[in-house]
Amino acid sequence: MTTSRACPVCKCADTRVFHRIERVPVSSCVNLDSPGEALKFPQRTMSLAWCPDCTFVFNSSFDETMVRYGSDYEETQSFSPTFRAFHESLCDELVARYGLRGGTVVEVGCGKGDFLDLLVRRGGNRGIGFDPAYDPERRPAVNPSDLTVFPERYAPGRVATPVDLVVCKMTLEHIPAPATFVREITHAPATAAPAPVFVMVPDGRRVVRSCAIEDIYYEHCSYFSERSLAALFERAGYRVDDVKAVYRGQYLAAHANPVPAGTRQDDDRDRSLQRIDAADIDRFRSRWLDTRRTWGELLDRYAPGVVLWGAGSKAVAFLAGIPGADSIRYVVDINPYRQGHFLPGSGKEIVGPERLKDDPPDLVVVMNPVYEEEVRATVSVLGVDVPIVPMSGSARSPSTADDPRAVPVRDE
Ligand SMILES: [Zn+2]
After folding, report:
1. Distance (Å) from CA 395 to ligand 1 centroid
2. Rounded CA separation 126/107 (Å)
3. Which residues surround ligand 1, an ion (CB under 5 A)?
4. Same structural domain for residues 244 and 296?
5. Same domain flag for 259 and 167
6. Residue 353: is the preceding peptide bond cis (ω within 30°)?
7. Could you tell me if 244 and 380 lie in one domain?
8. Distance CA 167, CA 108 (A)
9. How far is the CA of 150 from the centre of ligand 1 (A)?
10. Centre of ligand 1 from the C-alpha of residue 379, in Å
């Protein structure tokens, strides 16, 4: 299947759609107040397309007007001690690498401002943030002159002073026209020299290779490999000097630096970058079917005793993608701003961990394996004895060691 859309990164016209997913809720992290509202939430088709040139993957039927980001968009993971520790160490790494002391940092897509707040406090910097999902009532308690957040999308011209570093973390994957976006954020302000950029995105190669159903959802219209991320910044006059997988392989973290106009990229280095190749794309559909079958069988064995842990985008994607997910009893989240709301599409209730005591489940599925140990510790403190399995794209089949009711998966 070819698509009429050229690649949003490199303009290659030869892209092809390799997979479609029907009825995907158009927003995963929006707080909805009733099951009725959640069940009626708009759903659209995702058409995953691949560029054979730069190896970018994107939703070629993405409709930007369907996605809304406001202060009811509850995306933060900062209630997790594991995530906070990751943020703190990343912050210290950036401060040391860029000598960020008393400087100015712009964060495009700063969410609730948690990371920008760290950069301000731990480096004595000034922070300027942009995010339509920012909530001024939850503003970090730093000196107001040190932190300015615009509760809106980034717009060129909003930043008037020279910038020492642009941070763009977990944002590019939401942008349908990333080439235009990167040109805009790398030239802020327009009159000053381009600043270095730290960028972090989900590792799209991991998502495609391991068929991480839980990591494919509507807001994420763009899926990068090392190769396509480098290609994107090259076109804006940057070179990606250092790119690595972080957060147990889930994210790609890259440092992009401006290079003089006309600088030729190094072919050897380009070949060394990881890419989403044709074989990955060709295998995707059978893996998709395998993942659905394996998890569908597991839910079947435990229905209706399964609860999910983690009410973010991964849970919404899981509920939309796995057959039988309607039998899920409820979804636990430690973020108090999510509790009492309902998940778009499925209408499942989001509750605090204490619910496990009142309504003990037969199986807990942890949506992000990074949090497995944290979840086990919380469940143990609650005194609830229940098997716990992580949902993991890289280990699609729930391990039989973790699942007492596991039966061998059929080869069909
Ligand atoms: Zn391309």
Report:
1. 29
2. 11
3. 7, 9-10, 12, 51, 53-54, 56
4. no
5. yes
6. no
7. no
8. 6
9. 32
10. 45
Residues 301 and 333 in one domain: yes
In terms of domains, do 263 and 297 share one? no
Looking at the structure, do residues 215 and 354 belong to the same domain, yes or no?
A: no
Q: What is the distance in A from the centroid of ligand 1 to the CA of 56? A: 5
Is residue 10 one of the residues assigned to a domain? no
Both tokens assigned to 90: 């990343």
Cα of 232 vs centre of ligand 1, distance in Å, is 9
- Residue 2, class by beta-carbon neighbours within 10 Å (0-12 exposed, 13-18 middle, 19+ buried)? exposed
Q: How many CA atoms lie within 13 A of 85 on its CB side?
A: 7
Task: Give the neighbor-by-neighbor strand order of the sheet with 43-50.
Answer: 16-25, 43-50, 57-59, 222-223
CATH for 347: 3.40.50.720
Q: How far is the CA of 272 from the centre of ligand 1 (A)?
A: 17
Give the count of domains, the chain.
Answer: 2
Compute, in angstroms, the gap from residue 279 CA to the centroid of ligand 1.
17
Cα of 64 vs centre of ligand 1, distance in Å, is 20
What the block records as the tokens of 80 is: 């997790």
180 Cα: distance to centroid of ligand 1 (angstroms): 14
Domain that holds residue 263: 81-276
Please give the distance, rounded to the nearest whole angstrom, from the Cα atom of residue 53 to the centre of ligand 1.
5
Whether the Cβ atoms of residue 55 and residue 281 lie closer than 8 Å to each other: no
Residue 44 maps to a domain: no
- Kindly state whether residues 114 and 225 are assigned to the same domain: yes
Residue 242: strand pairing partners = 255
Identify whether 56 is part of a domain: no
Q: Rounded to the nearest whole angstrom, what is the distance from the C-alpha of residue 227 to the centroid of ligand 1?
A: 10
- pLDDT, one tens digit for every residue, the chain (412 residues): 666 699 999 999 999 999 999 999 999 989 999 999 999 999 999 999 999 999 999 999 999 999 988 777 877 888 899 999 999 999 999 999 999 999 999 999 999 899 999 999 999 999 999 999 898 888 766 777 799 999 999 987 888 888 999 999 999 999 999 999 999 888 756 567 789 999 999 999 999 999 999 999 999 999 999 999 999 999 999 999 899 999 999 999 999 999 987 777 777 788 889 999 999 999 999 999 999 999 999 999 999 999 999 999 999 999 999 999 999 999 999 999 999 999 999 999 999 999 999 999 999 999 999 999 999 999 999 999 999 999 975 444 555 445 555 543 333 2
- 110 and 144, same domain (yes or no): yes
Type and span of the H or E element at 256: strand 251-258
| Ligand 1 centroid, distance to 58 Cα (angstroms) | 10
